[in-house]
Amino acid sequence: MKQDELIHQAAEIIKRGGIVAFPTETVYGLGADAFNPLAVARVFEVKQRPYFDPLIVHVASHRDLNHLVSEIPSNAEKLIERFWPGPLTLVLLKREEVPDIVTSGLPTVAVRMPKHPVALSLIEESECPIAAPSANPFGYLSPTTAEHVQEQLGDQVDLILDGGPCEVGVESTILSFAEKTPKLLRPGGVPLEEIESIIGQVEVRSNKEKILAPGMLPRHYAPQTPVLLHWSEKNAEAYRGKRIGFLAFQEPRLFLKFIHIEVLSKKGDLREAAANLFSAIRRLDALKLDLILAESVPEAGLGRAIMDRLRRASSQGE
Ligand code: AMP
Ligand code: MG
Fold first, then answer.
1. Is 157 touching ligand 1 by the criterion CB < 6 Å?
2. To test ligand 1's pocket by mutation, which of 112, 184, 185, 219 has the most ligand atoms within 8 angstroms of CB?
3. Is domain 227-313 classified as CATH 1.20.1250.20?
4. Per-domain boundaries in the chain
5. Atom from ligand 1 closest to the CA of residue 110
6. What are phi and psi of 6, to 5 degrees?
C-alpha cells in the first residue's frame, strides 16, 4: 500500500479510538487521540507505563495548540516561532478539556509539533492532537526505526507507520513554563545553548528536585545489558575474560578485547552520534554481553542529551 493510503488508514484508526505507532524526527511514537481518555489508556497499558508519567501531545498547527493550552507566554511564543516544527516540547498551562490521563492530573500539558511529514499528515488527517510517548516498553530504549517498534510492540498496536530511521535520534528537549522562569526538564534534540540564545538564561532542573515523571528517573532509556559510563583503563582490567562491548564516540582506543565495537560518529559529530545512539546500544544489547563500556561525549550542544541518556542507561545516576 502507498504511504498516503497507510496514513489515511492510520488516521481512521486514531479517529475510532485505536493506537498507531508513527515516525517523528526524534524517535517513534505510540499515539492516540489526545481527547479520548480510553484510547490514551490503551497506550499506557501497551507500554506498561505508570499512570503518573504524563504524555507529550503532538500538534500540527497553532489551532491544535490553542485547543490544548490556556496561555502562551511570550518567551514560549518566540521559541515556537523559531523551533517548531522540531524537537522542542513546551510544558504550558492546560485547558480544562485536556483529559487528566494525558497529564497525570497536572495543571500543565506538554506539547510539541514534530518535524516529520508522516507525523504531521497523520495529525492533520486524524483531526485531533495526538498524545504519544515513545513506542517502547516502559523504561527501555526508545525506538528509532519501525523495525524496533515491530520487535517490541508489534502485535499490540493497531498499525505501525514506517518513515525510515529517525533523523535526530534522541527525544525532544522539554522546557517548562509552569513557573515564572522557564526550566529545562530534559535535554534533547534542541540544544540548550540555542534556546538561551533566544530567551536568555534558562534554569536547569536539578537532580535533587522532586521527580515529576519517570522520564526523569536516574535509570531509564536502559538496555538489558549493564552499561558502564565512568571507567578507566585501570578498572576496566577487572573485566578481563568477560564479554564486553564498546560504545565509542569516535575512533576507539583499543586496549581491551571487545566482542563488538559501535562507533557513534567517526568524525566526532554530535548530531550524527545522537542519531546513531539508540540503534547502536540496541545492537550491543542484542549480543547478550556481560557489559557495555560507553565512552563520554563532550557535554555541549546535543552532547548534553547524549550524556543524559548514557547516564540513565548506565543507571549510575547523575
Ligand atoms: P516520553 O514521551 O516517554 O518521551 O516522556 C514524556 C515526558 O515528558 C515525561 O516522562 C515527562 O518527563 C515529560 N512531561 C510530559 N508532560 C509533562 C508535564 N505536564 N509536566 C512536566 N513534564 C511533563
Ligand atoms: Mg519514553
1. no
2. 185
3. no
4. 3-204, 227-313
5. 16
6. -65, -40
- Give the separation between CA 311 and CA 316, rounded to whole angstroms: 6
Judge whether 3-204 and 227-313 match in fold: no
pLDDT, one tens digit per residue, over 148-159 is 999 999 999 999
**H/E run at residue 58:** strand 56-58
* Cell of residue 57, nine digits: 501531545
Q: What is the pLDDT of residues 202-261, one digit of tens each?
A: 999 876 565 555 556 666 778 999 999 987 777 767 777 889 999 999 987 766 778 999
Point out which residues pair with 32 in neighbouring strands.
131
Cβ(167) – ligand 1 distance below 6 Å: no
User: At 70, phi and psi to the nearest 5?
Assistant: -95, -15
Q: Is the pTM of this model over 0.85?
A: yes
Residue 230 near residue 209, CB atoms below 8 Å: no
Q: Would you say the CB of residue 23 lies under 6 angstroms from ligand 1?
A: no
The SS3 assignment for 150 reads: helix
Looking at the domain 3-204, which fold is it?
Answer: DHBP synthase (3.90.870)
